[in-house]
Design brief:
By secondary structure, this protein is α+β, with helices and mostly antiparallel strands. It contains 16 helices and 10 strands. It has 3 domains: about 1-35; about 80-265; about 305-435, endopeptidase fold (from Nostoc punctiforme), CATH 3.90.1720.
């Protein structure tokens, strides 16, 4: 790199210095040059980035076709050590096999294994097994190393136990599929640790909703997720229950929260520096990005009234097609390769692209096609709408879409709407069909 720069024309070097100076010393100039919609998002501290910019993510000990996620905390420190990552990689086939049977992210099993017995394949002397089942379910667990068959058995029990904990989640966070949303994962870890009201109160003291986001106040889940939840920084305001049925004591312990470790493995940075959507198939990327955008709206970081322009390029109109095409573009598979930044403003245009065949295909309702996560639902029967399938269960689909959830008449509805999620029948009378990536 130094040789290339040394040989570059003086004008190029001068331009590079000017750009570096602008970025380093004149951030307000950059902000003022942004469209209003992006400017508000920037000023709120929400990272506005391209999900495909994998250069934003750092990986540890991985090969070209693998990922360890960001593996850095909000302060840039390594979360999962090289030795831990090597052990996780060795155990990964066991985690994945068990996770696939109950449809949960395999990284959740790895996190519990790390927290409970340090990734060892050894039964501790307390008789609770590798994953520390307090009730000793599936036992007895004689002290000592276990073979592959026993490790497989215990890992399956752990996967089923984790899946079962999702039933105790806040209602909207109960879907714990392999591409689970961050809030569902956080909520499940919170259930695993006991759902203490003390932590719900601590979440409220930090500005979160104690009823829908109690996990945000739990060190077991979120320790060292950001500066305000770093015990090294906030020694008297961020605490932890350190004795059974005891009070919150300050500061909290220094270990990383379960979700922070999960984020390092799955590629979700708690501070928002990266996305798990960098990896996986097109469908997986689309679902992951849609869920992460949903979380921004549910948390109030994005709001009705103007933040939808993030997806429209600044235009003001009904924006469901813009949102769906924006998600696909961010996943690296634009619905329209000729449209600027892949933006498709009309539902009919997405429908036509599917009917034309090629990179996308259209499947009419009643054709026998079973939709899959990542498909686009086209509604042209007494409606004109499009949203994204994120889960399929029997004859029901869960979808995420933009320009939804508003109130009042359709005059200016797009200003009152947001990104929301809901479930409906595949054969809903409004549904015309599904557009799927080839």
């Amino acid at each position: 790199m130094m040789k290339i720069l040394a040989a570059a024309p003086r004008t190029i070097i001068t331009s590079l210095i000017a750009i570096i100076s602008l970025v380093a010393f004149n951030i307000p100039t950059i902000v003022s040059a942004l469209p209003d919609s992006q400017k508000k998002i920037f000023e709120r501290g929400i990272l506005y980035h391209d999900y495909n910019q994998a250069v934003r993510c750092s990986t540890v000990g991985v090969e070209a076709n693998e990922t360890a996620g960001t593996n850095t905390d909000y302060a840039g420190n390594q979360v999962v050590s090289d030795a831990q990552f090597a052990a996780i990689k060795e155990n990964q086939p066991f985690y994945e096999a068990a996770a696939s049977e109950v449809d949960i992210p395999w990284q959740m099993i790895a996190v519990i294994h790390l927290r409970e017995t340090g990734l060892k394949r050894v039964n501790p002397s307390n008789g609770q097994g590798i994953y520390q089942f307090v009730s000793k379910q599936g036992g007895p667990y004689p002290t000592g190393p276990v073979d592959d068959a026993e490790f497989t058995r215990q890992t399956k029990i752990a996967a089923e136990f984790i899946k079962g904990k999702a039933a105790a989640n806040v209602q909207q966070n109960r879907t714990l599929a392999a591409n689970a949303s961050p809030e569902a994962v956080k909520d499940t870890f919170f259930s695993y640790n006991g759902r203490s009201a003390k932590y719900a109160d601590q979440a409220a003291s930090l500005g979160y909703d104690r009823n829908t986001q109690p996990y945000e106040g739990s060190p077991y889940v979120m320790n060292r997720a950001d500066e305000k939840r770093d015990p090294a920084v906030n020694r008297t305001t961020w605490g932890q229950v350190k004795r059974d049925f005891g009070p919150i004591e300050y500061p909290a312990n220094n270990d990383y929260g379960a979700f922070v470790v999960y984020a390092a493995l799955a590629g979700i940075a708690p501070g928002g520096n990266c996305s798990n959507a960098v990896n996986g198939t097109v469908r997986e990327k689309v679902v992951a990005i849609a869920k992460q955008e949903l979380e921004l709206w549910q948390s109030g970081q994005l709001k009705p009234g103007g933040d939808f322009k993030k997806y429209t390029g600044g235009a003001s109109a009904n924006w469901c097609a813009w949102f769906s095409s924006w998600v696909y573009n961010q996943a690296g598979y634009p619905i329209s390769e000729s449209a600027p930044e892949g933006r498709v403003p009309a539902v009919t245009s997405i429908w036509d692209i599917g009917k034309a065949g090629g990179r996308f295909n259209f499947h009419a309702v009643g054709s026998g096609y079973t939709p899959r996560p990542g498909d686009l639902v086209i509604q042209k029967n007494n409606a004109s709408h499009v949203n994204i399938v994120v889960a399929v269960e029997g004859n029901r689909i869960t979808v995420i879409g933009g320009n939804q959830g508003g109130s009042g008449d359709m005059n200016g509805y797009y200003l009152r709407s947001s990104v929301t999620q809901y479930t409906m029948d595949i054969n809903n009378s409004k549904n015309t069909g599904f557009v799927s990536p080839d």
